[in-house]
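Inputs:
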Amino acid sequence: MRLLSAFAIGLIFGLGITVSGMINPAKVLNFFDLAGTWDPSLAFVMAGALAIAIPGYRMTFRQPAPLLENRFQLPDTRVIDRRLVLGSATFGVGWGIAGFCPGGALPAIGTGQPEVYIFLAALIGGLFLARILQAGIPARKAV
Amino acid sequence: METAFTPWASLAGGALIGLAAVLLMAIHGRIMGATGILGGLMRFSDLADWTLRAAIVAGMATGPLVYLLATGRMPVIEQPIPLWATIGGGLIVGVGVSYAGGCTSGHGICGNARFSRRSLVATVTFMTTAIATVFVIRHILGA
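Outputs:
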């Protein structure tokens, strides 16, 4: 039941990424290309997602606990530090180069296109690299 | 390379992404963040947690196949960049999202939907550097 529900939710996300166009790096890169072949579509993806997620989260957090778990797992950090800002800035540079973000690339696995696997392998390499660089610094829970 | 402006498809796809985020929180109490889900798959300490994440990713990867069944065509993935840029971009994304503790889905949608200041700072930062990166690559370097 737990796994079936997780699979179905992943499927809804994957369909959303596919239908929205976020799965296509060319479209993502054009969203960033304000001075060139600008394609504003991705602003609509964000708007559509937040229009559902804001009221949906509000209703969800009125419940004492999630349906199948004891508690909501939320990030407990609130500090805005250099890690957050420099990490986000770095992510943006990579996103601007490759056009894939992690949430776009995971559903793209299903298309079987080799670029997707190459990107994901490099992404996982980057996650490991960061883990090695961060060794010694107390681990922070990922969002 | 031009891409078609798709406001309705993007809005609808975005709504599905938002719905998935709400359901994952309401049922499993988790943030729908691709970085967090992928990062957890790289740790093998908790089998129940690992299988849940694997089920989410399996569902995500099924998204394009359901799209294929429904529409008769695979979603388009075009990456108008050389292979080394895909690899370099992937590595940079991996390091960045690891330090940032999230990416477009975790910070951009889930974090912003619960009005996290960290996520707002992250989103503005990675959008800005992505736009700047594409500007430099396409309009200054002329690639």
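Remarks. Chain B has one domain: 7-140. Residues 47-71 of chain B form the longest helix (25 residues).
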